[in-house]
Design a protein that fits this description.
single chain; Farnesyl Diphosphate Synthase
Amino acid sequence: MFSIEEIKAPIAIHITEFEKHFKSSMQSSVPLLDIITKYIIKRKGKQMRPMFVFLSAGLCGSINDTTYRAASLIELLHTATLIHDDVVDDSNERRGFFSINALWKNKIAVLVGDYLLSRGLLLALDNDDFDLLRIVSNATKEMSEGELLQIEKARRLDIEEEVYFEIIRKKTASLIASCCASGATSAGAGKEIIENMHRFGEYVGIAFQIRDDLFDYQQSKETGKPNGIDIKEKKMTLPLIYMLNNSGWTEKRNAIRIVKNHNNEPERVAGLIDKVNQSGGIAYAEQKMKEYQDKALAILDAFPKGEYQKSLEQLVIFTTQRKH
């Protein structure tokens, strides 16, 4: 298994430089905002989104100033959506750190999210990056639609596999797709290549989310994610959907009742997880994840071999074999 450092090697210098660009893109004359944005920078994760932007730009042409703006724009808009999500979910923690709303309350968190959103928009407009703005704004719209569709379906628990894929395409895959399309756009790629890179990112994003779903059915010691957390949140993930679609009426009704009314009872949730495992739902989800991984790798095969292509291949494999 490749490490993030190995995958990042061809763009390591650019990622380091990007951190300075991202930091400056958030600066404000308001002291409170500066304190909060410094806190945001300190708790940044693996930086997979900027990696997709820079590797895509390198693959499709060359990394330049526009690439840095593309990565900053995506990070600004994405960070804004995460802050707003934490408010909506009343979540006090993200990646092991206190959330913005936990430390500074909801009103300030919403305003900080709005500020980052506006900074992203202005960064694109001030540099006439209209193509980048269109790509990223469309992703933000799709992410909102995906989240709302998931909430609607969680209420009724009537989700079919087709709807599940629509939710994760919008909610998760659209962002990674926008990273890859933005990277290609920043490098001056043609329309067909940009569309291929968008499709590539979409396939990776779908595989990434299925992998995330599978963590729910594995030991928390290995994944760091508690067993059954998606069931507790009434999220209908692919292994569970498969089990429901391949169950008799009584078994299906009982499973839905657990998700709906007994999702905070560990023994019942554990029993449902066992049934999902026995139904073949895990194997089915793993097979689907592999299909989308292979689709993504097939798109990369059409590009010339080189360090950027190799790193993107490794990043695709990393997203589906990661342990958390």
